[in-house]
Amino acid sequence: MDNHMDDVLQRLQEQPGVVDTTQLSAEEFEQLKTLNLRPAQRPAMAWWVYGIAFIFVVFIAIGLLQWCVWTVEPLQGYGGFIGKAFTGKGELQFFLNFLLISALYGILIALTNRFWSTSAFLLLLVGFCAVVDRLKVGIRFETVKPSDLDFLKHDAGNMFDFTPPGLDRLIAGAAMFTLTVLVIVYSLAHRDGRKYIIRTRIRALGIALRAGIAAVLAALLALFTIGVSTAGSPANRFATAFGDSPKLWDSVIDAQANGTLMGFLRFVNPKVMEEPSDYSQATMNRLVRKYANVAHQINESRAYNMNDSTVIMVLSESFSDPTRVPGLQLNQDPIPQIRQIKQNTTSGYMLSAGYGGGTANMEFMAMTGLSMANFDASLSSPYQQLIPKLSWIPTVNRMWDNGKESQAFHPYEASMYSREGNYKKFGFTHFWTLNKPDVIAHQERIDSSPYVNDSSAYQSLLEKIDINKSQFLSVLTMQNHMSYDNWYSNNQFVASSTTGMPLGLDETQQIQTYAKGINYTDNETQVFLNQLDNINKPITVIFYGDHLPGVYATAGRDDNNSVALHETDYFIWSNKASASAGTKLPDSTALYTSPNFFMAQAAEHMNAKVSPYLAFLTALHAKVPAMEPPVVNKIQGWSRIPDGQAIYLDAQGNRVDIRQADKETQELLHDYQLIQYDITAGNGYLKDTAFMSLPKDTSAQEQQIAPGTKNAGETPAPDKAAIAARAKQQAEQAAKEQATEQAAHAQNANEQTKPSGTQTEQAESEQTTTGQ
């Protein structure tokens, strides 16, 4: 017995607390009990138990991450997220998120070599992230992005200034969840005799094995994270195979559809653009000097300072002329007043990068002067993928006291395209939307339309005009947003085909609803301009439609209509108090444009002095009137920019092969890439130069104005009834002229055969809501 006891005691010295009692007699066992030693260790759990527990933990982790983006009925939302993976439609996003969480779980287990404590740590970590995400969704209806880590670094002390109602309940729930996890894990760990998941006779071998597993999983996860946002990369193709479909207009919707973790990872490393081979500080300094000279030459003949006027930029949702759509005719002109405005002021057509969507991209180009054509195909939404990561972004509103005299208006949700945070970064003092704290003043709607009408958007802006200051004001309307579901009563518009192929029933209804909507826009825009004419302050308006509505299924079938379906209307107009009132730049310079050139064109229209940057854009616009990335006749998608060649138009609107352009044009385009790279992906060498600064030239003439009301909201509105009557009269006259023209055409058709236009059949456009 003594020999047995000696062996047992020796083993206890080598490994305290672990005793094998199978070789001891009853007497020896009783002797061990007197030594206060515990008997044999509990048996290890079977491996299948770990497998089930692993799946359950991952399942709960994904559920927590989905809970944070489903503020209403989260269980139903998570159930739908899982259920769609079994519908046979290829929507396997649940399994993609399962693999990602599993990889992270595996890394942690390999590093710690403990199963139960690691499971608790993972659930608590995910739970913490879910609570933070839930807080942000509750406050701003946006998910957490990598760029928010900067907020935690610099503004963590202000976090509780942004906490939503119900925080106490959320914290109590989180505390209960934490306690429950700890109790369950402790109970399971106490019953499990297996201390280590990977155990080898040679300790170094076990460490090497665990390190290898962790390294492989970490490398795979890192490669996926780095590449998933790059179009065509293996990681991107892998995610697409599981049905991942980015919905970058709204991060919450993206997380609900594709998984919260996927929604976060796609913003970690978006590819912006290739670095130009000659990019350096010396190169950028050379460009600053070059275009400072160009600005000096332009400014010698310019008489005014731009920021002595108020400039209003109007992005009119989906505004375009439907009578220009190939194969379509309406019984009367829906935009007679804007057509008349365009005849008397600088105006033309804007080449849009979107069809049925992509609003924020046009807005981005107009606000920055940068072009989507220069970005990598992976960067499909700068507002979501780029702006939150930048510490400096020059925007046009900063020409008005570095943005201190700029406000923006958007009668919709502030969270769309992350506008709330972006507009703060742009330097706007207020961003008026449907959400607190800056709630837009007027929110009326027309008939059964779900969107705030243009009259309300305009009036909200008018009430913020102060003639004692020069301001930059931006309004993004919503009235004509899809899906055009027969909203308006007394709709007089009738749409028909001129190709011999009748329009579809849904297509016809949508076009007619849209036509009525822009007819309201036509009237309200004229009222708005008349009100501005009553203000004794120089005011210039840049008005443009962002894209065509995605309702032209018949015309969209023909690829030859691609350019026509991407041309919207724009005009630049100045009120009576402006020296540039009645100015109309020639069609040779203004007929075609793209949104990145608007501010340079406005300066030319206003005879205003320019910065070196605006001088560059002026020079480029003279050589390349319009430019956009490749386009398709489908509603805007967000996984990538479409395949193909970027589109460049000449002054007459004809497509040109830019590779055949002259040396000066090629040099300008290369300079554009250098400038855009420096701002968006490079070292920001331009930031500390005067490249973006307007000249401080006191010799510029000041526009003399008479005293007037301080707030334009006090200015009496013109007689809307008279304007509507005039519009009706113009519409009737246009209808008579159209009828006469059709009769003449029919008579000529008897004499000779004429082509009837495009007759290619076209499939219905996918009516996926892309948001604003």
What keyword list fits this structure?
44% helix; disordered C terminus; eight-stranded mixed β-sheet; two-stranded antiparallel sheet; alpha/beta; 772 residues; 25 helices
Describe this entry's structure for a reader.
- The chain is α/β, with parallel strands linked by helices.
- Helix content is 44%, strand content 7%.
- It is built from 25 helices and twelve strands.
- The strands form three sheets. An eight-stranded mixed beta sheet has the order 5-4-6-1-8-9-3-10, with helices on both faces.
- Helix 5 (93-112) runs antiparallel to helix 9, helix 14 (336-344) packs across helix 19 and helix 23 packs across helix 24 (663-680).
- The termini are far apart.
- 44% of the residues are buried.
- Residues 153-162, 702-719 and 744-772 have low confidence and may be disordered.
- Largest sheet descriptor: 8 strands, mixed
Mean pLDDT, to the nearest integer, reads 83
Shape: elongated
Q: What's the tally of helices?
A: 25
Portion in strands: 5-15%
Instruction: Count the beta strands.
Output: 12
Structural class, by secondary structure, is alpha/beta
Strand order in space, largest sheet: 5-4-6-1-8-9-3-10
How far is the first residue's CA from the last residue's CA? 84 Å
The helix content, as a percent range, equals: 40-55%
- Provide the gyration radius in Å: 32 Å
Low-pLDDT segments, ≥5 res? 153-162, 702-719, 744-772
